[in-house]
Amino acid sequence: MKLVARLISGGLKSKVFLVYMGGFDTHVQQQDENLNGLHPYLLEMLSTGIGTFMQDALIQGFADRVVGMTVSEFGRRPYENGSRGTDHGAASVQFVFGNGVRAGVYGEVPDLVNLDSNGDLRYQWDYRRVYADVIENWFGGTPADTEGVLEERILPLGVLQRATSVDDAYDGKVQVEVRVMPNPMTDQTTLEWYQPVPGVVKVDIYGSEGRFLQSLYADRVSPGTMRVPVRGLASGSYICTVSVNGARTIVPITVVR
């Protein structure tokens, strides 16, 4: 991390840096009853490294130009394996850091009872939503760019603020305030908003984890009040996006039958 800070401060034009930290394959002695063990030690190393890097970024004047994220190729099982460790699992936690981060916890406390058929935690967010955030909100890409990179339509999580270099004021882009009536819904609900400018409107439905499910509406419309019905969804939680000339508004929808 110190070397990366020096490279950025020295003017290297690389857009992405990758550093590696191993040791998280903690099958044994992961943690004891006194909160000691390999995992707390590793997390302290990670925290110290990130904290020192951000201090360097502030001192060297590039803190507003960097954002970082952790990536792992596996999660951990929610229960001990008999050796004070855990085995490979499906879900994990991800950290995102930097001045451009909308700070907070995204997601709920993991459900240690409702596991999947393999005994793994059920993940709440598709991790690629953070990648989509980086592509669209940090690098200024489009949803089409995200789909091209990830090979699937994935909705950004919203953990990153829109970069100041990304201008939403052109081409009539406008954020609209969308109402969902009723919400929760049973068989049908209606999306309603006032659109002050003409333009292309797209309404899409995503699963709760952020994967694209279906397109509800796509057309060029005149200014005025818009109403789009939503029907035919199974029970569950969904994410609905309303885009006006590319500016996207996100609203949750719950279906209860």
Describe the structure.
By secondary structure, the chain is an alpha+beta fold. The protein folds into two domains: 2-124, no CATH class; 179-255, Immunoglobulin-like (Sandwich), CATH 2.60.40.10. It is 19% helix and 25% strand. It has four helices and eleven strands. It has helices at 2-9, 38-60, 128-138, 143-150; strands at residues 68-69, 75-76, 88-89, 96-97, 179-181, 188-195, 199-207, 212-221, 224-231, 236-244, 247-255. It has a four-stranded antiparallel sheet with strand order 8-7-10-11, with no helix packed on it. The chain has a three-stranded antiparallel sheet with strand order 5-6-9, with no helix packed on it. Helix 1 packs parallel to helix 2 (38-60) and helix 3 crosses helix 4 (143-150). The relative contact order is 0.10. The model has no long low-confidence stretch (mean pLDDT 92).
